[in-house]
Structures are given as structure tokens and as C-alpha cells.
Amino acid sequence: MAFKDILVHLAEPGAGNPALTAAASLAQRHDAHLTALHVYSLDWPLLMASNAYMDPATVQRIMDEGERAALEKAGSIQKGFEQILRSENIRGEWRQVEGPVHESVTRHTCYADIVVFGRPVDGSIETGLAETVLFASGRPILLMPPEPRSAFTAERILVGWNGSREAARAIGDSMPLLRMAKSVRVLTAQSEDGAEAIVSAEDMTRHLARHGVPVSASTTTLSGVAAQDVLLDTASDFGADLLVIGGYGHGRLLEMVLGGVTRSMFRHATLPVLFSH
């Protein structure tokens, strides 16, 4: 069991892109096909050109300039991607699409085993896109922080387990990584009596062990501490280089209003996180 079709979304040019580096590492380790997807939109040039006071020649110039800039940027990103394919001897392809960004990325994600996103320093645009894809595509996503602490290896993995459908889905989707890891820990956090959590964690540990996963279990009590803080603190203590969690366990609207573990991880996680919904 392995990832055989990996998609990485590349929005910006630049060397050392954490998403591209992680996607290339995954492709090498799983002997997978790597697809880079770049989607650009001409909505802004079109909005500028739609000004009623502009003459037709000015409208055309704005549209042409917008397309030229978009294609120039895409070409720079493509060049960096193809250089990685050659240097790392990875099978792959470049896809360049003009159209609505969220809709286009979601559509192409459906044809991959996993999609890799990078979270930029400002976080807003790319993070919102990754959230949309997680919710709409039915595929797991790997979100890389802007400055990963080290190269992506997924040798020590922390799994957040709460007995939910989303958490079970995340474990199933990440099985190719869990089976290749050196150490996996299943963490269950509960606000009050931990008896049920301990049984649930032990059941999941036995399930993973049957798949050959080198796994152990631990439980903790939240005691007023936010679940996301518990996950990140445990990941740091464990030396995890990947966190696996289910996304939007309480419903997307509620998470958007109240915050929640998923939304916090999308914006503040200091290590790579694999989400499934």
C-alpha cells in the first residue's frame, strides 16, 4: 500500500518551496507519479478592463498584460518544478490551468491519492484554498508550514485520535506513511474521565499493529488546555515530524465560527499536518 499519484499545488515561484520539497520526497519514497498544478485567474485584469470609461484599445492592453504576467509567472514555477523532476529522477507532469482557482484545484485533486499544499507566511489565500479542497475533494491533504524544521521524512508520526469518522478516515488515508514510519504514537485527549479514551486508543493501537505499524498509545486530560495546544506540545515532546488528524470534526460552519482544532492547525501548526475529512 503506497501513494502512487501525488499532486502538489504550486502558487508561487521560488527555490526551497516546502510543499514541492515534501511532495518530491513522497514521490521518491513511494515510487509515485508527481503532478504539479498551477492555476491562474484573469478575473482581476478582466475587472480592470471592464471599466466603462476605457476605450477598447486600453481594455485589450490590460487583458494582454494580465495574461502575459500570469504566463511569465507560471513559466518560472514550471521551470523550478521540472528541474526537481530531473535532479531527483522523479516521474511527473506539469499542469497549468486558467480559471476559478478553488474550483479548478478541487477538480484536479480528485485524481490524486494525496495533495500537498504549502502555507505561506501570510497564510490567508493558500490556507483558505487548502481548507476548501479538504472539505470538497474527498482527498487527504498534507499542509507544510512556511519554514519546516527539517526535511520531510515522516519517520515519527503523532496521530490525534478521538473516535470520530474524520479521525478514522485520516488514519486510513495516512496508512502508507504510518507503515513506513519508525515510530507512531496514537494520542487521545479527553476533558474528564479518561477510561473510555484509554480503551479507544488501545483498540486503535491494536488495529495499526496488525498493519505492521510500530505504534504505541498515550492518553491525556485536557484540563482546560486547548486541544490544539496539547497536540502541538505532545508532537514536540515526541519529536514528531508529522501530525495526522481528522478535519472539521464538529462541522465546518461551527469550526469557522468558534475556531477549533482544524482551523488553528491550518494557521499555526509548526510541523507538517495530514488532514482528512
- First CA to last CA: what distance? 20 Å
* Count of the domains: 2
Number of DSSP helices? 11
β content, as a range? 15-25%
Helix content: 40-55%
Reported by name, the CATH topology of the largest domain is Rossmann fold
Mean pLDDT: 85
Q: Please state the CA-atom Rg, rounded to the nearest Å.
A: 21 Å
CATH superfamily of the largest domain: HUPs
SSE string, helix = H, strand = E? EHEHHEHEHEEHHEHEHEHHE
Q: Any idea of the CATH class of the largest domain?
A: Alpha Beta
- Low-confidence stretches are none
Under the CATH scheme, the architecture of the largest domain is 3-Layer(aba) Sandwich
Strand order of the largest sheet: 3-2-1-4-5-10-9-6-7-8
Q: Could you please describe the fold and organization of this structure?
A:
This protein is of the alpha/beta class. It has two domains: 5-144, 3-Layer(aba) Sandwich (Rossmann fold); 156-271, HUPs (Rossmann fold), CATH 3.40.50. The chain contains eleven helices and ten strands. The chain has helices at 18-30, 43-49, 56-88, 101-109, 124-137, 165-173, 175-180, 195-210, 227-238, 252-258, 261-268, and strands spanning 5-9, 33-40, 92-98, 114-118, 141-144, 156-160, 183-190, 215-221, 242-246, 273-276. The protein has a ten-stranded mixed beta sheet with strand order 3-2-1-4-5-10-9-6-7-8, sandwiched between helices. Strand 7 (183-190), helix 8 and strand 8 form a beta-alpha-beta unit. Helix 4 packs across helix 5. The longest helix has 33 residues, at 56-88. The radius of gyration is 21 Å and the shape is elongated. The two termini are 20 Å apart. 40% of the residues are buried. The mean pLDDT is 85.
